[in-house]
Automatic annotation (TrEMBL):
The lineage of its organism: Bacteria, Pseudomonadati, Pseudomonadota, Gammaproteobacteria, Legionellales. Residues 8-77 form the Methyltransferase FkbM domain. SUPFAM superfamilies: S-adenosyl-L-methionine-dependent methyltransferases. InterPro entries: FkbM_mtfrase (IPR006342), SAM-dependent_MTases_sf (IPR029063). This is Methyltransferase FkbM domain-containing protein. It comes from Legionella oakridgensis ATCC 33761 = DSM 21215. It comes from the Bacteria. Signal peptide: none annotated.
Length: 101
């Protein structure tokens, strides 16, 4: 039996505007394949208010490099880590850490 649930979505940019945020110390993203959609929903001017990010990524179609390159273009320094536990199970799971200097 399949269950469908409708839910309202919003972009991260809209959430930032609606809640009048002017600083984000730490942004955690775990969206099962939609990482670039979420990151690219942020208005370019809003990246200056984000200090650090932690993003879970499954490296399909070169997603890790694409995400890391995009974040570098936004002024972040990047560290990519593979989780050895997931790697031993055959998962191509990475954590991308981004920090403004």
């Amino acid at each position: 039996m399949e269950t469908k649930v409708r839910c309202k979505l919003t972009s991260l940019s809209h959430f930032i505007e609606t809640n009048q945020l002017n600083r984000i110390d730490f942004l955690k993203i775990d969206v099962e394949g939609a990482e670039m959609d979420v990151i690219k929903s942020i208005h370019p001017k809003q990246f200056s208010m984000i200090k650090q990010c932690s993003i879970e990524v499954h490296n399909i179609d070169n997603r890790v490099a694409t995400l890391a390159d995009f974040l570098r273009e936004q002024g972040f320094s990047i560290k990519v880590c593979k989780n050895p536990m997931f790697e031993s199970l055959g998962f191509n799971h990475h954590m991308v850490y981004a920090k403004k200097e």
